TrEMBL record:
SUPFAM superfamilies: alpha/beta-Hydrolases (SSF53474). This is Arylformamidase. Its EC number is 3.5.1.9. Gene3D superfamilies: alpha/beta hydrolase. Keywords: Hydrolase. It comes from Aurantimonas endophytica. GO terms for molecular function: arylformamidase activity. The keyword Signal does not apply.
Amino acid sequence: MTDAVLRDHEWQYNPRVSTPDADGYRNRASAASTSMRARRPDAIYDIPYGAGENDRLDIFPGAPGGPAHIFLHGGYWRGRDKADYSYLADTFNAAGISLFVANYDLCPSVRLADIVRQARLCMSAFPAVAADAGCDVGQLSASGHSAGAHLLAMCMVEGARIPVGMKSVTLVSGIYDVSHVLGISINETIGLTQADVPPLSPLHLPLNRDRTVVDVIVGGDESAGWIAQSALFAERCQRIGLDAMLLVRPGENHFSIMESYGDPGHDLARRIVTLCI
């Protein structure tokens, strides 16, 4: 690639480069999450879903016996933490839904394939963990942002089933073809090779045909390359008969869309909650 092509590729597939004030969004999310944890003495932290050090969930309880929702965080598989997303609790708890926020290992300490296995372990353990927390396992749902959406999509692949009976899966600003990571600076940390691409790209893998509602959401102000991935994945889901919809959010970027998600009064948050119950 020429320098100009490399710069454009970085802009297309690195939201921290293409999004104005990316650090501001990150800092606001962290502050809101710190505030949430301070005012939620009922929250339960670091519940194990596996034997690994980072196989942990934070739980923000909703109504006893109510629905349960699990969230997989973003950070391009190399950053962020479940504690950075505590602010999402209000969106779900206001509707009586318990929120489970998952952690996982990060690159370069592990490979992306290891993180995918960890996400699948987390999702397979979710019903039992939700039951132990007093939730209704007949009303389970899931969402993920960015890298978390990729991991959740990898749980939709044949042979890696999301829990049977999951009411909805919401994929927010995800990456579904990891070949694009090969040409950007982030791969210095992630360490993907060409051989990693086929088994780790849900856009090109056979998907389960579970009767689960799938929302594929992306910001209208995200890069054309990022929007295209969401459109292609939604189309792929629809083509195999899933109840899937593409939602391009006008005026939203890769990070502002999560601020909308964390606002219980926002129409995006209300839609996601509606799909959970």
